[in-house]
Amino acid sequence: MAEHDFDAFGAGITAIQEAVGDYFAPYQGGRYSSPRVGEVLRWVQNEGLRGVGQSSWGPTGFALIDSASRAHGLWQRATQRWGAPLSFSVCGGRNSGAEIGVRRKAA
CB atoms < 10 A from the CB of 56, how many? Predict the structure, then answer.
C-alpha cells in the first residue's frame, strides 16, 4: 500500500491466501474451510477483484475492494444471490497508525 498500487497489493494478498489455503487444504477439505465461502470467493475473483482469502481457519472470507460504491454493489448482489445462512458486510479500514497510551488503575 505504501506504493499506492492497490492492484499489486491485492494480488499479493491473494497469492499468500492461495498458498496458505492450498497448504491447509488436506486438513480443511479444500482451499477454503467452507465450500460456500469458497464459492463466493471464486465469484468475487470472477468479478475481477484481487485481495481475496479467508481469515485464519475460516469460515470468514474477505475481499479487498477499491471503492465503497463498488463494495456496496457487490454486497447487494452477493446477499441476493446467497443470502442465509451466509452474511455479508462492508467494512472500512482504520486508515491510521497505532495509538499507544497509558491506562491508570482505578483507585
Answer: 8
What does the DSSP 8-state code read for residue 63?
E
Q: Is-contact 37 61, C-beta < 8 A?
A: yes
Tens digit of pLDDT per residue, the chain (107 long)? Answer: 556 889 999 999 999 999 999 999 999 889 998 899 999 999 999 999 889 999 887 789 999 999 999 999 999 999 999 988 899 999 988 778 888 888 888 77
3-class secondary structure, 30:
coil
Distance CA 68, CA 99 (A): 26
Instruction: Write out the three cell numbers for 9.
Output: 497489493
Domain residue spans in the chain?
Answer: 6-81
**What's the pTM?**
0.78
Pairwise CA distance, residues 79 & 83, whole Å: 5
